[in-house]
Amino acid sequence: MAEESIPVKFGAWVVYWDFNRGYEELRRFGQVFDKASLFAYEIDSRGFPVRAKELTYSKIKKFVFLAKRKKIEPWLTLVNDVRLKNGRVLLKESFPLKKIFSNKRLMERQIKSIIYVLKKYGFKGIDIDFEKIPDELAEEYGNYITNLIYKLKEHKLECNVIVEPYNGPLPYWGTANLTVMSYNLHWSKTLPGPRSTSKFIKKIVKRVEGDAKGSPGIAIVLKGFLWRKNGKTKRVDFSEGENIKINNQGKIKRDEESKVPFLKFENGDELWYDDVVSLKDKINTSIKAGYKRIMFWYLGGNPVKFFYLLNSYKKDFKGANK
Predict the structure, then answer these.
(1) Would you kindly state where each structural domain of the chain is located, as residue ranges?
(2) What are the DSSP calls for 34-96, one per residue?
(3) pLDDT of residue 218
(4) What is d(CA 10, CA 293) in angstroms, rounded to the nearest whole number?
């Protein structure tokens, strides 16, 4: 499928806990991406953005410089993981945001701090990844996103809002660019199975129908899971899954609906991960469902064949070693 017949843009995240591997993949294969978002900022107990301590200022500058050199849009992701003073991190907390949403003065200060960070490093825009927001805060959340976008536009900065596939409030219709997470159909807290399926991808498009530009986005995960018999799980990289497949030729099966390969070990463990076949099915399904932007979560631990798959959708790939 050629790009001229499929108007889709590709992007990917580079995350602070796997920065070196993600950066290297972006360096080698960045030509297949239109956008790269650095998952780097959390919020403090007041709701203000703070840099993840594992990521240095120099690495942020390094990321932005590389993205611009590769002609990729550099974005920053802000997530509502709360970094406490004692160093502990609370995942997907809404209590600091309640203060921001309900206090106009605090909201203005918080938005100014976001703009400061974006302009300081030269990011093009921000991905807002606020999860587990209570439904009773829907109106306050909508007002916040509207105000944020208005202020960002004054500085020629952009905003994209990440939304959950099932629950949680949405920005007001037509105000924000939207990207829906298409994973966790099965994950570490569920029984074994594919992270997503074609049916799931088509179902959740309704969550982003209110995209401001009529170009809804979807996030596709690149990591699988090994479910152990003892109840514990292990996240599995794309490359790791491929190596397991090579060492278990003839034993790997493929789920009929999702096209995802899986393997049931004799000891009771069970592996599910996406390969080129299942990812191609997800990309094609996403395009047919009307998604215009596809983000991949996340770079690091992916084989060359994944980037060649994306290359097959793009015209301007210049080679893996530039």
Answers:
(1) 3-222+275-311
(2) SEEEEEEEEE-TTS-EEE-TTS-HHHHHHHHHHHHHTT-EEEEEEEEEEE-TTS-EESS--HH
(3) 98
(4) 6
DSSP code, position 168: S
Whether residue 51 contacts residue 89, with contact meaning beta carbons closer than 8 Å, is answered with no
Query: In the chain, which ranges are E strands?
Result: 9-15, 35-43, 49-51, 73-83, 89-90, 125-129, 158-163, 177-181, 217-221, 224-227, 233-236, 253-254, 261-264, 270-272, 293-297
Distances in Å between the Cα of 65 and the Cα atoms of 27, 125, 154, 272, 286 are 11, 15, 24, 36, 31
Nearest to 41 by CA among 135, 108, 110: 110
**What CATH number does the domain located at 3-222+275-311 have?**
3.20.20.80
| C-beta neighbour count of 19 within 10 angstroms | 23
Per-block mean pLDDT, blocks of 10 residues, the chain (322 long): 61 98 97 97 95 95 98 98 86 94 96 98 98 96 98 98 96 98 92 95 97 97 94 93 85 92 93 95 95 97 95 61 40
Q: Does pTM top 0.90 for this prediction?
A: yes
pLDDT score at 2: 41
CA distances from 283 to 6, 272, 300 (A): 11, 18, 19
Distance, in Å, from the CA atom of 241 to the CA atom of 265, rounded to the nearest integer, reads 14
Report yes or no: 159 and 128 within 8 Å, Cβ to Cβ.
yes
Cα 311 from chain centroid?
Answer: 20
Among 186, 220, 182, 184, smallest CA distance to 204 is for 182
Q: Output the pLDDT for position 315.
A: 62
Please compute, for residue 110, the number of CA atoms within 13 A of its CA located in the half-sphere on the CB side. Answer: 27
**Cα dihedral angle (309, 312, 315, 320), rounded to 10 degrees?**
40
The burial class, CB within 10 Å (0-12 / 13-18 / 19+), for 247 is: exposed
In one-letter notation, the amino acid at residue 229 is: K
